[in-house]
Amino acid sequence: MDILRIQQDNLIHSTSLAHVRDFYNEIEWEDRFIGIKGARGVGKTTLMIQRMKLAFPNLEEVRYISLD
Predict the structure, then answer these.
(1) Most exposed among 26, 31, 57, 68, judged by the fewest C-beta atoms under 10 Å?
(2) Structural contact between residues 49 and 11, judged by C-beta atoms closer than 8 angstroms
């Protein structure tokens, strides 16, 4: 679990909120299930990390786990 926390911390610190994609506000974030798909490198992870940073002031409450 410590490895996952370290990976998440690295992602959080390297992800900027300077540019958030326009469709960020079009996603129904309160839905129970949201699927985000796309080719490699299009910004899926960045989108999720930005969501975490914007929606959860205490980042200890959430975890990002890659299924790669």
Answers:
(1) 68
(2) yes
